[in-house]
Specification:
single chain, 486 residues, alpha/beta, Rossmann fold, Alpha-Beta Plaits, 2 domains, eight-stranded mixed beta sheet, seven-stranded parallel beta sheet, 10 helices, 24% helix, globular
Length: 486
Amino acid sequence: MRFLNFQAFTVLSLCFTISSALVIPSIARREQSKIPDYHAPSSLNHTLNSSSETVPIYNGGANSIPHKYIVIFKDNLSANDMIQHKQVIQNKQVIAASSINDTQHSFFNATRAANNTSTNGGIITEFNVTNNFIGYAGFFLPETLETITESNTVKYIEQDTFITAQNEFITQYEAPWGLERISQRDKVPYQPSGPFVFADYAGEGVNIYVVDTGIQISHKDFNGRVIGEVNFSQDENGDLQGHGTHVAGTAAGEFYGVAKKANIISVKVLDNNKQSSCTQLIQGLQWTINDHHQRSNTPGFRGSVINASIGGSLSIAVNNLIEAAVFSGIHVVVAAGNSGDDACNYSPAASPSAITVGATTVNDTRADFSNYGSCVDIWAPGLDIQSDYIGPSNQEVAWLSGTSMASPHVAGVVAYLLSLVPEAESEFKISNIVLSPANVKRALQALGSKGKLSGVNSQEIPNDYLLFNGANTVSDYSQFYKSMSW
C-alpha cells in the first residue's frame, strides 16, 4: 500500500466574522441500536397542560421562532388518520386567523417574515423521514395549537428554533497544521507545510454531505468532485458566506482536505447570515436520506457521511432527526459547539447517535471556546484551520477557528476509513452491520490517541480521544476491521 506525504500550497487568504448558539438545560446521552421512542427531558418546559390526555409542547427557548411549531405523529398511524388530522388543523387555523382584525398582530408579522408562507399560517411543510419521524411544521395560533394538543394522533409538539453555524474566531497564519496532527500520534509544531500521511484510497467511493451554507462548487480545490447540490434555505444557491466551503475543504478538498477523493454533496440549509430553522434542517436531512438510498446502489459506493457544523438550543426533534439519519446507515458527524459549555445542552451535539467533535489547539489542549462533556465523542484540530473559501479566483483560502473546523476533520477520516473497505459488489465486501455508524464511532475512538490532551479534567472530558487516521498502521480494510473488533 502506497502512502502519500501531502504538503499544502499557499494562496490568497480571506476572513469573516461569525456567531454562536444559545444555551438551554441539558439532556443525558443514551446508547441506542435503533431509532428510539424518544422521551423529552424534564428540563424542556411544557407550555401547556402536560397531563396524559394532552400532547406536550416543548418550548424552544431563546432561539424560538414565534408561532411556528413542529408536530410529530405517533408511530404506526394510517395515512388516512394523518390526512384527516391535517385537514382539521388547516380548517381550524383558517377560522382562527380570520377572526383577527389587527393586521399588525404578532402572528401576521411572523408569517410575513417567512418567505413562501400564507399570511394566515397553517401547515407549510410536511415530512416523512422514517416511519418513526413523520409530521409537519407550520404557523399556528393558540386556538389551533390547543386542537393539536388534544389530538390522539400526535406524539409531541416542539416550537421551531433558529440554528446557526458553529464557528467563531478568525486568524491568518502561514500554514495548516490540522492535517499533520491527525496523521501523527504526538504533538506537532505549528509550522508551514507539515506532512500529512494517508493511504491513497483517500475517501474514494464515499459521499460526504455538507449540511451548511452551501459550497462554492467552482473552487479549484474540489476538482469537480461536488456531485450534487440542493438548497433549503431562503437564499440563492451556492455559498455567499464562506462557512460551508471552508468546511467542505477540510473534509474533502484536494489540497486542504482529509478525504481527497471523496465525493461532495452540498445540502444548503443555512442562509447567508448562517441561520436556519429546525424545519429547514428536517427538509435537508430528509432529502439527504433519500439521496443516500438512491446512490447506495451505484457501483463503487462505499458509504455516506454527513457533516453538520451547526447547532442551536436543545431540540428533541433535531436529536430524533439525527437518529433517523443514522438508522438509515449514514455516519453523522456534528460540531460540539463554541460556547465553552457542556455540549449536552445543545442540538445536534447532544444526539447519542451522532459523532460529536470538540476542538483542540496546536498545543493539544481544549480550545477555550469548545464545548465539552460526556456528549463529546472525540477531539480534533479546530484552531487556526486553513481551508478553502469563497472568492472570484476559485482558489481563495481562509484561516478559521471553531468546532465547525474540527468536525470536518472527523467526517473526512470517517470517509477515509470507509474507503478502505471493499465496495459493495466485491466478493470481499464487509457486512453493513459491521460497518454500522455505531461500530465506526467505536473504531474512531479505538484508533484515537488516548491521553494526549493536556490539562484534561476527566469529568469535563471523559472521552479523551484525539483524532488519528491510522496512518502507517491502518492501510487496508483488514486492519480497519480489526480496529472495530477490539
